[in-house]
Amino acid sequence: MFGLNKIIPVEPNINFLGLRRKFLIFSILAMIISIVLLSIKGLNLGIDFKGGTLIEVSTKNTSIGELREILSSSYSDVSLQEFGNENIILIRLQNKSNQESIETINSVKNLIQDKVVEFRRSEFVGPTISSELLLRGFQAVSFALIAILIYIWLRFEWQFGFGAVVALTHDVLFTLGLLSILNVEFSLATIAAILTIAGYSINDTVVIFDRVRENLRKYKKLELVDLFNLSVNNTLSRTIMTSLTTLLALVSLFIFGGEVIRPFALTMIIGVIIGTYSSVFIAVPTLLIFKFRPQDEDD
Amino acid sequence: MKNYPIWKSFTVISLVLLGIIFAIPSIIYDENSENWFLKNKINLGLDLQGGSYLLLEVQLDVLYKEELDNFVDSVRLISRDQAVKIEKIDIQENEVVVFFGNKEKIKDIRDSFFQMYRGVTLQTNNNKLIIKLNDEYRKIIQDSAVKQSLEIVRKRIDESGTKEPLIQRSGKKRILLQLPGVKDPERIKDLLGKTAKLTFHIVDNENTSALQNNLAPFGKIIVPDMYDENTKYLLDKRAVVGGENLVDAKGSFDQTEGHAVSFRFDTEGAQKFGKVTTNNIGKNLAVVLDGVVITAPRISSAITGGSGIITGNFNAQEASDLAVLLRAGALPAPLEIVEERSVGAGLGADSIAAGQIAAIIGMVLVCIFMILIYGIFGALANVSLIVNLFIIISLLGTIGATLTLPGIAGIVLTIGMAVDANVLIFERIKEESLKQTKVFQIVKNGFDRAMSTILDANITTLIAAVLLFAFGSGPIRGFSITLSLGVIASMFTALMLTNFLVYMYLSFANKKELKL
């Protein structure tokens, strides 16, 4: 057929494993930096996990400065931000107790009523709820990692499961580190993005592992390093192709999907790139720790 | 067409047709259609159609404390009957400790108390009686309070005129509300924020020292005025009659009194009210709502008709809302709003529009890319991709799932990820084509070899999606639903539809060799 896929050679022969030390150092550094960042700077927690009030308004002929002036006289902890365009403004308030806060929405609305065309959104999350949401998000991510590990363990040898989980932990940490640097708001949608990244990254890893397993049976005399290299090369064009189509869809979501979904799309874009990288440069080299040959010689 | 079984072609074609047909109601999207077929459309979540999500928590601590107070009152009454002096009563967080003057009758007091409150834990120690609220007793209070609250909330929401509300218990002590299309969430929150406990009490005007010392004697309470905190009333603790005896309440207007709420008692309430007003002519009767006195008029004559009006400084809306609250009845305990998410119709519509554009552009980009890379095979994969989208939409519509903004993101993401299975297959075909020349054998091997990889790779994504559903809430669940449906549909379209299309293409084009 007339496709451009011939750009990528049918049987590429790139020595990925030869580069493993450099990338391993890079990844370890990235993870250390991520951990340091997460413990010092932390994540830009949204109201889902921090609690508080958020009101989105659309205005006409009113500048953000005017609104800020009106509100800051009554609230010391108010922050305003343009959201997508200058006529849409996001107001955030951090509150101490629930009761205070649910009334806050009302009193803020009253203060700026005549400057506002429409109240587009108002959200309030109380402190008990935000800590519950954080706990549940944490549980979801941990259980997903464990469930994926168990699945890989059942379908492959346990060493593969180990490699997959090392890669996944890397992806999650690295992504969180970048979210911290970029100051992307961390919300419920971010948890969804991280779980999807875990699913995506493992998907990539599984495809390569599948080939490793197949090649282990096929080439019984081949050096492990060469065999892993061969497997990565075999699946290379698929790895690139799928990442590109996924990124195309995500970039479209990032640009056109609207302001609310943008942090989600950005997190996913970061995660897909990291997940693809880790499948090749982290998951596969991790397998080298084990001196294994398949025990099952049945075919 | 070589070796392509007819039953398989038939299955593929009919599934594809079903997918397209059942997507029609959601694509046309006629909101008010009564047609059985067109009703199978996608439900839009609150974040897309506008509306309010509220999570309320029943303040059980208030009830536990109330119950401890009841214990104290009952113990006092019993010991008075038994002529035993009480030296001290200690109310702690979970128990009441009563110290009696002597220990002779403590067993009798304990037994009489147990007759009234079966289920509490009672301990005696010398002259000390300990009354404990145990876990079971608390659970009974909790369950009945939440059940009752649920009923009252439902009545209030119904009275407020909200269409198709969803009201359900969530966890142990919470109530979840989804109110589509609500334009003024503040009013709803006002309606839910009041306990609306209405009681009538006789005012004690004689004991002025109690008010001065701000110390109520046994059997009396001090209650502030609704409009002026500094004005206080000394009232009989026992209510003459309460809101539970009301059968009707309406907002009304009176030339002299302004906006008011007129009410009517049931037979029992009317009798009680009649008797008290007859016996207390000249005294004041306080109308108490949620711990404040709305008004305390003088009883000038006996009121035996069982109806009356409550006046205050109401405006029309306040009077009619109070009437709604009184009709629906009092909550057993205050409700606290612990979470609110309200979206206006404007933002919802914007989100839908943006989501559609993102999906279409993402789709076009992926399709162009696939044709650039795989040529005609890419075009075949694109047909699968489009059918895949139809299947997701029709599944969402027929299973009655709710589409949310993250759900739309899930669909766009699926567009990018769904071609993966096709890519896996094509890459295998490419490899196979180096090994042999028989066109159909190449294709067959390609599909067969890719199969297990496709399953493994997609099941891991499904695991993540299922856990997201289990732990996620509202909008996020919408994401996990579309993602899961997308993954499942993409396996079908790649393994069956693309397979079918590739065979058809190869047969009709009569290809003798295959180079991908």
Keywords:
heterodimer; A: 299 residues; alpha+beta; Multidrug efflux transporter AcrB transmembrane fold; Alpha-Beta Plaits; 2 domains; four-stranded antiparallel sheet; two-stranded parallel ribbon; 9 helices; 6 strands; 12% strand; disordered C terminus; B: 516 residues; Hypothetical Protein, Haloacid Dehalogenase-like Hydrolase, Chain: A, domain 2; Gyrase A, domain 2; 3 domains; 14 helices; 19 strands
Could you describe the 3D structure shown?
The complex is a heterodimer of chains A (about 300) and B (about 525). By secondary structure, chain A is an alpha+beta fold. Chain A folds into two domains: about 10-45 and about 130-290, Multidrug efflux transporter AcrB transmembrane fold (Up-down Bundle), CATH 1.20.1640.10; about 50-125, 2-Layer Sandwich (Alpha-Beta Plaits). Chain A is built from nine helices and six strands, in the order H-E-H-E-H-E-E-H-E-H-H-E-H-H-H. In chain A, the strands form two sheets. Chain A has a four-stranded antiparallel β-sheet with strand order 3-4-2-5. By secondary structure, chain B is α+β, with helices and mostly antiparallel strands. In chain B, about 55% of the residues lie in helices and about 20% in strands. Chain B has helices spanning about 5-20, 25-30, 45-50, 60-80, 105-115, 135-160, 185-195, 210-215, 265-280, 315-330, 345-400, 405-435, 440-470, 475-510, and strands spanning about 45, 50-60, 85-90, 95-100, 120-125, 130, 165-170, 175-180, 200, 220-225, 230-235, 240, 245-255, 260-265, 285-290, 290-295, 305-315, 335-345, 400-405. Strand 5 (about 115-125) of chain A pairs antiparallel with strand 18 of chain B, so a sheet runs across the interface.
